[in-house]
Amino acid sequence: MIVLTTVVVLPMIQQAGFDLVWFGIFLVLIVEMAEVSPPVGFNLFVLQTMSGRDSLTVARAALPFFFLLVATVAIITVFPDIVMVLPRMAFPG
Fold it and tell me: pLDDT tens across 49-64, in order?
């Protein structure tokens, strides 16, 4: 669903003046937040099946990672140049 909607949203993102590399990393972080957010995160179902634990235990164990992702999204939103450090080092000019 992300792949299908990104094609439609991408021109709007460019017109708004967002860096596409930043937006790609932002999008990956948001999707990962959806993967580990209870109660319907797909990764939680995988971990529940692999560990044999109940969903509440798995969701409680994943909660710190969810908060780390929220903090990361907040940081790259406030300081977007952090995302571009490595690409600028790899591709100067």
Answer: 899 998 888 888 889 9
Q: What is the 3-state secondary structure (H, E, C) of 13-67?
A: HHHHCCCHHHHHHHHHHHHHHHHHCCCCCHHHHHHHHHHCCCHHHHHHHHHHHHH
* Burial of 8 from C-beta contacts in 10 A (0-12 / 13-18 / 19+): exposed
Number of domains in the chain: 1
- Check: CB of residue 44 under 8 Å from CB of residue 62: yes
CA distances from 3 to 6, 30, 42 (A): 5, 14, 17
What spatial distance separates the first Cα and last Cα of the chain, rounded to whole Å? Answer: 35
pTM summary value:
0.83
Q: How many CB atoms lie within 10 A of CB 44?
A: 19
What's the domain range around 27?
2-90
d(CA 61, CA 57): 6
